[in-house]
Design brief:
Helices cover 21% and strands 33% of the residues. By secondary structure, it is α+β, with helices and mostly antiparallel strands. The strands form two sheets. Strands 1-4-5-6-3 form a five-stranded antiparallel beta sheet, covered by helices on one side.
Length: 144
């Protein structure tokens, strides 16, 4: 039996319908479009935190994705309703987000993924080895 993963305090979930333009010649979602789906739900999560990309830039930091992992379990098809979920699982030294894409009707898992982002000070171009205080503030986490 598989152990259920505990949900994080910081998450967002959205639903979307698979569009024709996302399909490959086999009539399933082309694998590269899953990265776009992750971005859509990541933006919903960042908006929920009040720290979207413009707010990041205004705080003096860029947060490039430095790692992306995808595990395809089952195909998504034209017209299918998908539930996309993003959970922040690490934030102290980097921003790691886990994702789950599932069939809305059945709850069946279709794709698991994770991204890792690091803070880069825009003015200097230097990577931060500890997440900046603004992230802790947006997450409501007290600095030690």
């Amino acid at each position: 039996m598989r152990k259920q993963k505990k949900a994080s305090r910081w998450w967002a979930e959205i639903e979307m319908q698979v569009q024709f333009f996302d399909l490959d010649p086999m009539q399933i979602v082309w694998h590269g479009n899953y990265v776009k789906y992750l971005e859509v739900v990541r933006c919903a999560l960042l908006d929920k935190l009040g720290y979207n990309y413009m707010e990041m830039k205004n705080s003096g930091f860029a947060w490039p994705v430095i790692d992306l992992q995808l595990r395809y379990v089952g195909p998504a098809k034209f017209g299918q309703m998908l539930t996309l979920r993003a959970d922040i699982v690490e934030w102290e030294n980097r921003l790691k987000i886990d994702y789950l894409i599932s069939d809305t009707a059945t709850g069946k898992r279709l794709t698991r993924a994770s991204t890792t982002q690091v803070a880069v000070e825009i003015a200097s171009g230097e990577m931060c080895f500890v997440s900046p205080p603004v992230l802790f503030e947006k997450l409501g986490v007290k600095l030690a």
